[in-house]
Amino acid sequence: MKQPEKNEEQMLIANAKNGSIDAFETLVRKHQKSIYYLCWRMTGAHQSADDLSQETFVKAYLALSRFKEKLSFFSWLRKIAINSSLNYLKKREKEVPLDERMQLKTSNTDSHNPNSPANQLRMNELDTKLMDSMEKLPAEQRSVFVLKVFEGMKYKEISDHLNIPLGTVMSRLNRARERLKSSLSGFLEEGHHES
Fold it and tell me: Would the pLDDT of 39 be above 50?
């Protein structure tokens, strides 16, 4: 089932390598949302995520001749985006997110009626508090947390992407979770009393 889509992407990559701007633009359109959200989760700011996702595609275009077709194109893009985001976070102090921040929508809530206005408001508050708390994490903890929780990567994949030992991935993730748990504890306890 997935094979035709994969073959189509391989054809687009081959055409882009041969100089087809249209083929590369199609690849960008296919992956730009995912790359943008990854950058946004890493930085917590719309403008930075927008800049970093554009930077990712520029870097990918310039390095396209070195891309190995046997690899996953999205994984390759994601690695470029992660590295760009980490470099950005290392260069700059914490950035104040723009007010037009997008709200994360989570589909798996334990509530009986997740669509009720009260639950929607609560989820929006939790999303905002989570993003605010994530912005306070050190870059190395934030990156591991984003890759594990939002990108669904396995520990080994994170280790390979960030070029750090597996134990370091686990300890950074554990420290990130502890800091977030501590930061959100008051808000989460309120929620348990309401259920």
Answer: yes
